Amino acid sequence: MSADPLRRRPRRLNRERSVHLLACDFSVSADCEELFSELDGLVQHGSQRYPVSRRYRFEIWGTDGGYRLCEDGRDLDARPDARSAAVVLYARMQHLALDALSEFTKIHAGCADWQGKRLVVVGPARSGKTTLMTRLLYEGFAVHCDDLVLTRQGTVLPYPRLFWVRWHALALLPQIADFAAKAPATQDHFAVNPSQLGFDWQIAPAPADTVIFLEPNHGGATRLDVCPMYSMAERIMLQSNPPAAGIRDLLKDVCNLLQHAACFVLQCGALDTGSAAVKAALCARVSGIR
Q: Which domains are delineated in the chain?
């Protein structure tokens, strides 16, 4: 018997999956269905219109001692159970997907389309982006992402991944209560997949028509104010990671993003009034309000 049971390969790799993340296509082979059951609970299922430029292959071998992960023929990691193996695998996919688009600026923001106009909602952690973007699904918006967008040369590219909603926000989102009871979850969050809620989930690049900076005002009044472009640029830069070229290109990307967009600050007191304010901001863009 081998001293390291993880190095034994007792079964053939007879199961296949393909995962697409923007510029990357991942082929996954495994010898056990349990790994794919866990991976399916983590992977987004949105339709993506972005050209593939990189391809990777993963192999996962299951034994009595756990799971061994290989990437393009090289050992990647070893994990004791299917859940942790799937988490490591998907985290590696996301790292490679973002690395393939290193020339883009990354912004902590949600993105949606409404009546032919693109909305970007920027905000720090715990500002309520995910809760608001999930609510907008039920307000006629095509919501693409809740927490990360990539931008370059004035184009906004939503990053496709599941919406991780905090459990305490469920009281504000009764529409998804039944779904949440069966969704993949952690102690603090549960995963929302818009396509499993019956919405058409599309990922495609487009310029922004309206940019909103979200400030929480839980329990207070909702307020929507026009924001000067220079002030919005400052706010966004604090919520961004620069491209590979550095800070100078970050500033250029943010300015290009805002060049033709209406800018607002939204103090969101409640979801009903917050979603109404978002629609008002998008309608204001039609009237030429800056």
A: 5-99 (no CATH), 105-286 (3.40.50)
